Amino acid sequence: MRLAFSNVASSSNSRISLDDSPVRTTHLYLRFLPKNSAEYDLLKSEALSDPSGL
Fold first, then answer.
1. Kindly report the CA angle at 27 between 24 and 33, in degrees rounded to 5?
2. How far is Cα 4 from Cα 53, in angstroms, rounded to an integer?
3. Are 8 and 16 spatial neighbours (Cβ–Cβ below 8 Å)?
């Protein structure tokens, strides 16, 4: 989101300062990209057994 906000703020028509960014990070998001269906099934089964394990 910060990248998107900086793109908007840096456009020629924008009067938004990067210092005025309303974007505040509150969580760390992880992306899981399994290589195949076996890895997907493993991630899915682990997430269902302990969804707060990260």
1. 125
2. 30
3. yes
Q: Which two tokens stand for residue 50?
A: 């302990």
Q: What pLDDT does residue 37 have? A: 95
CB-based contact 23:5 (threshold 8 Å): yes
For the stretch 8-48, pLDDT in tens is 767 655 566 555 666 677 788 888 899 999 999 998 888 77
Which residues does 6 contact at the CB level (< 8 Å), separation at least 6?
18, 21
CA distance 35 to 33: 6
